[in-house]
Amino acid sequence: MNYYPESILKLIKSLSTLPGIGRKTAERLALHILHAPLHEAQSIASDILELKQKVRLCAKCFALSDKEYCRVCSNPNRDDSLICVVENPSDMAVIEKSGVFNGYYHILGGALSPIDGIGPDEIRLKELFIRASSKEVKEVIIATGTDVEGEATASYIADNLRFYDNIELSNKSKQNGLIISRIASGVPMGGDLQYVDQVTIQRAMEGRRGF
Amino acid sequence: MNYYPESILKLIKSLSTLPGIGRKTAERLALHILHAPLHEAQSIASDILELKQKVRLCAKCFALSDKEYCRVCSNPNRDDSLICVVENPSDMAVIEKSGVFNGYYHILGGALSPIDGIGPDEIRLKELFIRASSKEVKEVIIATGTDVEGEATASYIADNLRFYDNIELSNKSKQNGLIISRIASGVPMGGDLQYVDQVTIQRAMEGRRGF
């Protein structure tokens, strides 16, 4: 390994800490950066520092944001009767990319997982219940993962929202009860049934709809 | 694309300029950097800047170096009767990694390629001929690539070294004529003959040795 100068070795080492970047790829990237124009290399470095400095969590939905409120929360044209609950910012990105949802989000920052010491107080559930109890909110769509933790979190949220909603109903006389929904699970589009696991098939059968 | 804050989008964009890093990978890397400890992110950024600032070419062999002379050239324990000529610093790295060569290097910085406008003056041939004409040098091993450009460069070097060597011989009375050699080409080790191309087989037959 001592056939490169120190400063190249250092960059190779620090690039290797990135996910999916092994020694060989890090070496290739470092040599590319070495031969790239100075402004290109500088912009990568400054963008990394800027990212770490600027990005924080949206004060309302806890999405990633440069400002106090994220792009979605600072958009007044979205439907404030809908809250979509997701585990992580990247889940929110996937839903936004699809363009099918026009409400607001709530990012939990994880899922309940007692084995990892993540209980209801470790993720942003209280904040969700407070938001959901506001008068405008008509529906909470639970879009946590479909793994064990995601399912458990979904059940926990549904149970507690019903409880909160009952209290709120008696105090604030909401017109209708809060609708609590879960995103559908089933066979993915473009999927061949042959490759779909049994639990998914079971869900797809249970969730079947009239044609 | 507008579901991430500006500073994340900027980093994704600049990471996408790296070779082999597409949009998806850049997104994953940016999110990793976002969640990584501050010092890790800072060290990537500072290593990039340090690399661009410090790395230059060795004054003797034109390898990558932090100082005036590279690690190899500043090592007095190597055999100064051997010069190995390669196209690029990464070729030198491969030979160093193998550990079979104990002489010094000469990095041309490319290969002759008239179609791309790269003639003898565009690569460091003159510097090689000057180094090779020194009294200590007994053998020049030409390890340019085995593609058309690499082969042409090898022939050019061999022809010109012989010419220079004759002049030097008459002036400085070198003990023996300069040995000019070319790395062997043939079937790669661990290779199945079935998958080896015809030109390589031809070379392997021509270059056969007594057992």
Textual characterization of the structure:
The structure is a homodimer of 211-residue chains. Helices cover 44% and strands 10% of the residues of chain A. A four-stranded parallel beta sheet of chain A has the order 4-3-5-6. Chain A has helices spanning 6-16, 23-35, 38-54, 89-98, 125-132, 148-172, 198-206, and strands spanning 56-57, 64-65, 82-86, 104-107, 139-142, 179-182. The first copy, chain A, has 211 residues and is an alpha/beta fold. In chain A, helix 1 packs across helix 2 (23-35). Chain A is built from seven helices and six strands, in the order αααβββαβαβαβα. Chain A folds into two domains: 6-54, Orthogonal Bundle (Helicase, Ruva Protein, domain 3), CATH 1.10.8.420; 75-210, Dna Topoisomerase Vi A Subunit, Chain: A, domain 2. In chain A, strand 1 (56-57) and strand 2 form a beta hairpin. Chain A is globular and about 70 Å long.
- The total count of strands of chain A amounts to 6
What oligomeric arrangement do these chains adopt? homodimer
Measured by residues with Cβ under 8 Å of the partner chain's Cβ, the largest interface is: A-B, 55 and 56 residues
Number of separate structural domains of chain A: 2
Average residue-wise pLDDT of chain A: 88
Strand order of the largest sheet of chain A: 4-3-5-6
Question: What is the CA-CA span between the terminal residues of chain A?
Answer: 64 Å
Gross CATH architecture of the largest domain in chain A? 3-Layer(aba) Sandwich
Estimate what percentage of residues of chain A fall within beta strands.
5-15%
What is the radius of gyration of chain A computed over CA atoms, rounded to a whole number of angstroms? 23 Å
CATH class of the largest domain in chain A: Alpha Beta
Q: Major sheet of chain A, described briefly?
A: 4 strands, parallel
Structural class of chain A: alpha/beta
